[in-house]
Please model this.
Amino acid sequence: MYTTARFRWTTLLFGLLLTSACNAASPDASTPTPTYTDGNEYVTLSPPYQRMSSAGKVEVVEVFSYACIHCAEFSPYADALRKSLPPGVVFKLVPAPFNDTWVPFARAYYAAKKLGVLEQTHDALFKAKFTDQYPINSPGEIANYYASQGVNKEKFVTIENSPEVDAQIKSDLALIQGWGVDGTPTIVVDGKYRTANVGTFDNLVAVTKWLVQKELNDKGK
Model:
């Protein structure tokens, strides 16, 4: 598992890169299609490529955490990206269980998903934690937050501590480590490409779309 010190350094570095983020201007017909370099804006992973599932022509996965302020800031971009993807391309989330502080948030994600409240609580949790500054850090505080959203607290706690969620988190960590992800938010396309030195949220979205189209072209779809 990644050490807390290493991950804090990675998150800080990513945060510094994002301080210059700005909205990209809409391209016109004379604007050339951007190209990106393997080893710079993205990294091609070693085969065999590992997807989360076989669903969809191409799979786009955001590795995130509710404990990460940059994931909170990226969330509106992620929503727009998901809606703009070509037909048949699926967008998924995987919560990063990088350390003991982040594991409860990963558990909360799967409990909310199981209870059918993920859509209504996903962005709301980011807002409560980082905009409204509610104390949502410990397992108890996290459970109390979901209870405040009308979720049955007893069911929530039972699910988040279930063997099923234990196994899912173990599987997620192995997959994330296999992808070489050590910071959030990071996007992995089809288990084959991982975003790298993108600099801004706009670029993260642009690189992701470019990789999706590259993968669709390679598959002849």
The two ends are 37 Å apart (CA to CA). The first helix runs from residue 4 to 18.
